[in-house]
Design brief:
Blueprint: H1 2-19, H2 40-70, H3 74-100, H4 109-125, H5 128-152, H6 158-180, H7 188-207
Helix pairs in contact: 2-3, 2-4, 2-5, 2-7, 3-6, 4-5, 5-6
């Protein structure tokens, strides 16, 4: 029954993540930002970027869930759980912003989630140090990706900017936490593969 209960809980969580029905524990940073008027092209561009960010959070939920499930040490399990809760805030904020922009979450979310869960499981099976190293490198790349979005978002889209800025702060903290727990450095070829996979995801998710 324990296995069945866990399977049901995992399925329910995956369904909420994939459909964009997550709930945030913290207030949305966009609430404190002015709602600028965007033209049609700016609105489409903001929506594309925020859809990419939402997909990133779908992937983060799957990764942290899998890595936390198969982590060996309790402090590491706790870190994955804490980071996962903050990532769920990001998931809810980006989904809300997409609705405000008159757009939708990625139609390929089931694929993104399943692929990320498999990667998270593989990383965890390699041991805690390498699993944390995967987190550290992922968060380093996500930080750079979010910084590029702050340069690309329309200047008047203060709401999206506020969300992305808070997300970047949180991702930096998650990477630092992973390194403090003993993250191993990812080999350069692995970093390149991760960058290539991220490029494919961001390009596709911007449109679909």
């Amino acid at each position: 029954m324990l296995f069945l209960d866990r399977a049901i809980a995992d399925f329910d969580n995956a369904l909420r993540v994939i459909t964009g029905q997550a709930s945030a524990a913290r207030p949305n940073p966009a609430l404190q930002a002015a709602d600028g008027v965007l033209d049609a092209a700016e609105q489409r561009h903001s929506a594309g970027l925020m859809r990419v960010n939402h997909v990133g959070e779908v992937c983060a939920q799957a990764l942290y869930d899998a890595q936390g499930r198969f982590a060996q040490g309790d402090p590491i399990k706790q870190q994955f759980a804490a980071a996962g809760r903050e990532e769920e805030d990001h998931l809810a904020w980006t989904a809300e912003r997409l609705r405000e922009l008159g757009s939708h979450v990625s139609l390929l979310n089931p694929l993104w989630y399943a692929g990320s869960y498999a990667l998270g499981t593989l990383a965890a099976r390699l041991g805690d140090a390498r699993s944390l190293g995967f987190v550290s490198e992922t968060e380093r790349q996500v930080e750079a990706h979010l910084s590029s979005h702050l340069e690309q978002l329309p200047l008047l889209d203060a709401k999206s900017r506020a969300i992305v800025e808070q997300m970047r702060d949180d991702e930096i903290a998650h990477g630092e936490a992973a390194r403090s727990l003993g993250a191993a450095e990812m080999p350069r070829p692995v970093q390149k593969v991760m960058q290539a996979m991220s490029k494919v995801m961001t390009t596709v998710a911007y449109h679909i």
